[in-house]
Design a protein that fits this description.
Keywords: Lyase. It comes from uncultured Sporomusa sp. GO terms for molecular function: histidine ammonia-lyase activity. This is Histidine ammonia-lyase. This protein has a three-stranded antiparallel sheet with strand order 4-6-7. It has a two-stranded parallel ribbon with strand order 1-2. The chain folds into two domains: about 190 residues, Fumarase C, Chain B, domain 1 (Orthogonal Bundle); about 300 residues, Fumarase/aspartase (Central domain) (Fumarase C, Chain A, domain 2, Up-down Bundle), CATH 1.20.200. With about 500 residues, the protein is mainly alpha-helical. The chain is elongated and about 85 Å long. The model has no long low-confidence stretch (mean pLDDT about 95). α9 packs antiparallel against α14. It is built from 21 helices and nine strands.
Amino acid sequence: MTVITLGSPLNLEEFLQIARFGAKIEFSPEYCRRVIKARQLIEKAVDENRVMYGVTTGFGSLSTRVINAEQVEQLQRNIVLSHSTSVGAPYTVEEARATMLMVLQNLGRGHSGVRLELLELLREMLNRNVTPWMPREGSVGYLAPEAHLALVLMGEGQAYVESRLMPGKNALEQAGLAPLPLGAKEGLALVSGTTTVTALASLALYDMIKAAKSADIIGAVSLEVLRGVMRAFDPRVMSVRPHPEQDGTAENVRRILSDSAVLKHFEGTRLQDALSLRCIPQLHGASKKTFYDARRTLEIEINSCCDNPIIWDADGDADVISACNCDSAYVGIAMDSAAIASTMLAKMSERRNNRIIDESLSGYPAFLVDNPGLNSGLMLAQYSQAGLLGDMRILSTAAVIDNTPTCCNQEDYVAMGYNAAKKALQVVEKLEYILAIELLSGYQAQQFLDPTLARSKVTARILEDIGKSVPVMKEDIFLHPHIEFLRDMIHTGRLVELAEEIIGPMK
């Protein structure tokens, strides 16, 4: 079992190892030192009866209301109870785990003032697979879903243990854990920050990057089956417009198809291809740049303190600074942009697929099936692409341009990054399905391509792997399970692994 130590910066892959693949967590000595020191500062400030936002005052527009020392702990419990207002379907296990990890990252920077014991409890919930029940709808960037997580730490709310939903207290007991009453600052710290926003965004972006590499592979399969022109991928073309992602995409396709006897045989038969084929480096490259820029943003966010207020060590005294690191604009803008980039990949994929199934464009039987008319072949698979693409276009409308003031106009500007991250998960899932349908067409078209012409090693390996589970369609068949199989091949990274086994790491 993989064990990852928190305390030094995490990258996106390490984040996913914990959130999706179940790696265990431990804390470094430096992580513990930071947390303990910040807690000592808060306790000293409370003992001195200092006025601190969210510690000895109310929250938001109630920040002018002073709370006496005897009510400090009740205040933290109250904020969790009153903020548990999100509704609807709950997070998936990996979405909840990603949020828990982000809370550990956020509060473990040593600028929040929570107890180490609280973070150790949250760590052990992750390690022992206790997953809070967190309704996903009704957040503007933080607070409500996180409050449902915090309930479980208090022994309230609900949580899953081995897929069984039960009261939070019972879930902790079953895992050999005990709840903790919240101390000064802890309720506010648990619900504050870009934790859910960054958690959901990280899951989506990881899949977007994988889908973009898969799009290079699937585009290459389509290029081969459509007997495409490789001059559009010439390094000289890339050198006069030196975007590294464009050049990397062209190199990926050249490496995948370098030994294709199909392309060699048809070389010189036409001057250029349609844009959906010859513009693969430009469009895929631009999308990848957007994803890689977003990755840089998210990895900064993953390793930041996004709490409010923050605790600063001012020569042994706590300087409690109320500001707005909990703003989600960085992640929101990045994920709105990533959604647009994903939709760009999808719209090109659908057009390539259309060229394969259209007999007037490909020269193959209509919809890649014998006796079209009696059989519909892959006609409706393209309809599904069109429907999915329509959804993606709607979801690509920017969330962050919206604004609904909250908290009696104390929070008169709201970044809406949560909605950007949430819809990015929907966008990438639909992209995976659209790419899967293009791959299905590329696979089915092989039966009509001259069998004496060798496919590239990469294409041949992929077709062989698909053929173990997907039949060659001679007449109409039940297509849904095969689309799901190919989507899973993309989502799990299996498709990229098959290509990289032959050509090495893709760019």
